[in-house]
UniProtKB/TrEMBL annotation:
Residues 282-297 have a biased composition (Basic and acidic residues). It is found in: Cell membrane. This is YihY/virulence factor BrkB family protein. PANTHER family: INNER MEMBRANE PROTEIN YHJD (PTHR30213), UPF0761 MEMBRANE PROTEIN YIHY (PTHR30213:SF0). The lineage of its organism: Bacteria, Bacillati, Actinomycetota, Actinomycetes, Kitasatosporales. It is a multi-pass membrane protein. Keywords: Cell membrane, Membrane, Transmembrane, Transmembrane helix. Signal peptide: none annotated. Coiled coil: none annotated. One of its GO terms (cellular component) is plasma membrane. Pfam families: Virul_fac_BrkB.
């Protein structure tokens, strides 16, 4: 199964698609940060400052520099408080949905499934997924912010004192992991034009994607810290290049996990009597955009 997954990964040119997702991810990063900082701005500038401090503590050097510079730049441009700012947030959400649109196309390629959903149906799906991802990203940011004094203050209000700080310092990591799992699960379920068993928090492919992403990110961080020569090669652009490579690796891990799920679906279809070489091998969600001759009878 893993051998077939790797072979299909190459046949579907998913490394190139991961590069395209990286491009759209970068385009979505700054609008996404605008939404995030604008929403955090409701809680005050000190909240955003705590987010930056947490990023500086947790993120690897090059990634930290890129993200914190972007957040500070967006923060300096202003937050919520005017009609223009609200319009800017909506425009930012639309820009950020470019990544989801690219992922929809990639997921259909993985399942060898033509897009059959009409535009009026795809666009709400695309924007809806984007909004859900932004909400989960904001939740992740709030979890990062809710440390130290904030957790201690909440513990005092609840009458459990410093116990809250101890419990939360441990519990926040599983919660963050759950949010990451939720993001991957949402993309795997809602993006492709395929009917499945319904929303599942964890699939074999999403679990594989998460494991590969964690291992690859850790390995890449070790390589950059100890063996990489990005500073010598790229100079002042080294941080940006490292960040782009990490995004590309992350997208490769996600697409590889999706391909694994697709191969499992193919295996189930073949066992159920589906011809081995006939595509698509899963039932489409919608065929309204297909030519009449390609629609199932």
């Amino acid at each position: 199964m893993l051998r077939r997954t790797v072979a299909e990964f190459q046949d579907d040119e998913l490394a190139d698609r991961a590069a395209a997702l990286t491009y759209y991810g970068v385009l979505a990063l700054f609008p996404g940060l605008l939404v995030l900082v604008s929403l955090l701005g409701v809680a005050g500038e000190s909240t955003t400052r705590r987010v930056l401090e947490s990023i500086k503590k947790m993120a690897p050097g090059p990634t930290r520099d890129v993200v914190t510079s972007a957040v500070e730049g967006v923060q300096g441009a202003g937050g919520v408080g005017s009609l223009l700012a609200v319009v800017g947030v909506l425009a930012a959400l639309w820009s950020a949905s470019g990544y989801v649109g690219a992922f929809i196309r990639s997921s259909n390629a993985v399942y060898d499934m033509p897009e059959g959903r009409p535009v009026w149906k795809v666009l709400p799906v695309r924007v809806g997924i984007t909004v859900a991802l932004v909400v989960m990203a904001v939740g992740s940011a709030l979890i990062v912010v809710f440390t130290g004094d904030l957790a201690r203050r909440a513990g005092s209000l609840l009458g459990i004192g410093d116990t809250a700080l101890t419990v939360w310092s441990i519990a926040k990591w599983p919660v963050l992991l759950l949010l990451v799992i939720g993001m991957i699960a949402l993309l795997f379920w809602a993006a492709p034009n395929t009917k499945g068993p319904g929303f599942r928090w964890v699939t074999p492919g999403s679990f594989l994607a998460l494991v590969i992403w964690l291992l690859a990110s850790a390995g890449f961080a070790v390589y950059v810290a100890n063996f990489g020569s990005y500073n010598k090669t790229y100079g002042a652009l080294a941080g940006v290049v490292v960040f782009l490579v990490w995004l590309w690796i992350s997208n490769i891990a996600i697409l590889l996990g999706l391909e694994f799920d697709a191969e499992l679906a193919r295996e189930r279809a073949v066992v159920g009597g589906h011809p081995v070489d006939e595509e698509p091998y899963v039932e489409p969600r919608d065929t309204r955009s297909w030519p009449d001759e390609e629609k199932p009878g």
